[in-house]
């Protein structure tokens, strides 16, 4: 009797639970508030429409939840992993996108990128189906952590030039923003919802400093309408240059698969712990790796069709769910509806567009670096044997070709033109990923053991 009473006092919602309307709205708003800073920042950095990005985030989340049968509670926002290749593609095919500081939106570049985002969706769905068919272990042999981890490092570090370029608009504002963002991210840990919003708080501090220095232009807000139909664009399937964007952008999914899988494992642990306390059977959503990737792909179908930034399921929203013990997919669908409605508020998009470039530069220094360090964390967590010449070969090749090519070659392109797909040359990140995968495949086809080479002991085990 006492045990039953204890279970009845446990607060929390499992994926299929539906809270009261009041709880659903308040918990849903927290989810929107948590995803908002990062999702909007990616749109700003890549010149995507903020309204469309919010609309696609909400609708994409709802679609992904339905595709998973409401079994996997995830919220989807804009992915930082795609920024490097998106900026590269837009610089190649829509050069006016990044020439003026007052350019907030670049539809010509977005339409080409949309085709690539749809290509990402196809890759994610195919990988999901493949994992359901052959298992994750087999896929890990072709795309081991040394590949996915080093590609993540390349993605982050290759953006260093872009981050510093934005910060150079006003170094004082950029570094004040950077320092306060880091302070908030470190010292607000474990402080509930406050601890989930260091990027937002850092941006607010930078905005206030910019305001005091006379760097904010409020005319953009005055000119904006309260109600505004998001500037939805159609993919440029008719543009032959878009086919190069498909391969360039879709390959980045290689780096996001481990991230998405890690999020799934994390959520599975928390959900099963709550189920146990509630006296219910474990759901073990960690078994749904393939379905999770298919849901990721369905979200990117929405982004690709509407003109939203390439998406990913958000770790910060997962953390919020763990803190509040709310894993209800009904709440996440309510959050999706809220994000959709926010996409139609013209004044909101205008306020976002008044954020000075230096503020986003300060945020970018931190966030882009984190992307790279997360690649290191993946290699470390998977206990990759960096004393093995095979691992060293694959990792070092990807790092030098990817980072060196992006920063050292003209337009970040290797001078190997391929008609239709890469007529101007192969983007550095794409070239690095392809070469790394081929080298790893060589070691799979011709393992050193065939030549009497003894595998070196992994001291990390």
Written overview of the protein:
The protein is mainly α. It has one domain (19-378). Helices cover 66% and strands 2% of the residues. The chain has helices at residues 2-8, 21-46, 50-67, 83-93, 107-134, 136-142, 145-157, 160-167, 171-187, 198-212, 219-223, 242-250, 253-277, 289-306, 315-324, 329-342, 346-353, 357-381, 389-408, 428-445, and strands at residues 76-78, 311-313, 413-414, 426-427.
Total count of strands: 4
Instruction: Give the total of domains.
Output: 1
Compute the average pLDDT.
87
Report the radius of gyration as a whole number of Å.
Answer: 22 Å
Question: How is the largest sheet built, in terms of strand order?
Answer: 1-2
Spell out the helices and strands N to C: HHHEHHHHHHHHHHHEHHHHHEEH
- Which term fits the overall shape? globular
How far is it from the N-terminal to the C-terminal residue, by CA?
46 Å
Share of helix, binned: 55-70%
Major sheet: size, sense and barrel closure? 2 strands, antiparallel
Class per helix and strand makeup: mainly alpha
Poorly predicted runs of 5 or more residues: 1-6
- What is the number of helical segments per DSSP (H or I, 4+ residues)? 20
Strand content: under 5%
